[in-house]
Amino acid sequence: xxxxxxxxxxxxxxxxxxxxxxxxxxxxxxxxxxxxxxxxxxxxxxxxxxxxxxxxxxxxxxxxxxxxxxxxxxxxxxxxxxxxxxxxxxxxxxxxxxxxxxxxxxxxxxxxxxxxxxxxxxxxxxxxxxxxxxxxxxxxxxxxxxxxxxxxxxxxxxxxxxxxxxxxxxxxxxxxxxxxxxxxxxxxxxxxxxxxxxxxxxxxxxxxxxxxxxxxxxxxxxxxxxxxxxxxxxxxxxxxxxxxxxxxxxxxxxxxxxxxxxxxxxxxxxxxxxxxxxxxxxxxxxxxxxxxxxxxxxxxxxxxxxxxxxxxxxxxxxxxxxxxxxxxxxxxxxxxxxxxxxxxxxxxxxxxxxxxxxxxxxxxxxxxxxxxxxxxxxxxxxxxxxxxxxxxxxxxxxxxxxxxxxxxxxxxxxxxxxxxxxxxxxxxxxxxxxxxxxxxxxxx
Length: 444
Prior knowledge:
alpha+beta, 5 strands
C-alpha cells in the first residue's frame, strides 16, 4: 500500500512484503499507495491551512510542524533504502511518529494524521508490533485531543479507536486476499509449466517413434538393397579381373611361337564378360527398386498431391475422384501458405474421413470445407449418411485396412496443437471438424 509495497508476504506471521523484490505492483496496490500518499499530504495541508485561516495562537509552529512531517514522509517514500531494509523502514516510521507527536502538541488537527499512520505501522512492522503501534497511536491521538479540548466526550475515544480497528481489519483483509491471489498465481504458473513440459515430452516421444519407424524401414529396404548392389558390383569386378588375368596367361613372349593347337578343341568356357554384365544388370535392377523405395518414403512424408499444388487444389482433386457419394469442396476465407506438416495433416484427415464416408456411411452427399481465419484454419467434413454413436467408436487404435481411424485423426490434430471434434448420431449423418492454430510464420 505504500512505496515499499513490492512482493508476497513473509513466513512466520510476517505479512509484510520482502525488501528488494522488484515485482511490479498490481493496479489495485498502486492505486491504494497513491491514495495513502494523497491522504497523508492532504491532511497535513488541511491542518496548516486551518491554523493560518483561523489565526491560531501557534500558527507558525503548526505550519512548521506540518512542513517537517511532510518532508520526512516524502523523503522516506522516495528513499530506496526504505524500500529494501526493514530496519530503515522502522526508523523512518519512528521519525514520522516523533514529528507527528510534535504536531499533536501544537495543534488538535494533528489527530487526523493518526489514520494514515495506522496503515503505515501495519505495513512496515510485523503484525503483532503493528497492532501494538496502532494501539499506542490511538492512545496518543486521544490524549492530544483531550489536552487541547479539555473536555471528555465519547467521541474523543471512539473516533481514534474505531479508526484503528478499521485500519487493522482493512489491512488484514487485503493481506488475506493477496495471499490467496499469490497461491492462485503460483498454481497457474505451475500448471502452465507442467503443460509445456508434457507437450514437449509428447513431441519428443512422437519424434523418437517416427525415427524408429523410419530406421526399421530403411534397414529392411534401402540398406539391404544397397548391400546387394555392392555385392553384385564386387562380383562383376572380380569376374572381369579374372578374365583379364586369364587372357594375359594364354599369350607367349614376343616372337615366340604360340601354343600348339590340340587335336580336339576343349569345351567352350563361359564368357566372363557376359557374367559380369549379368551382375551389373542385377545391380541396376536393385538400384531401380531402391530408388522406388526412396520415392515411396518421400511420398509418405509429403503426399504427391501436395508436391505440385496447394492444399485447396489437393482437396478439390480428392473430392472429384471420390467414388460413391457426390462430394463437393468449398473454400472460405483467403488461402495462405501453410507449413508442410499442417498441409499433410489436413489432407490425411480429409482422406481418412472421406474413406469412412465411402465405406461405412452409406451417404448420398458429402461436403468438405476448408476455412482460413485470422489465426486458425478449419477443415469440416459433413455427410448425410446413417451416422453412428461417437461414444462407442473405438478409441484405442486406428481402424484396420490401412485407414487412419478417428483416434489417428485426433492424434494428428492434437500433435499440432489443434482441436478435433466428431458430431454424429444414428440416422443423422456425421460432421468431423479439425481446427489448427496457425503458426507464427503463417501469420506474418
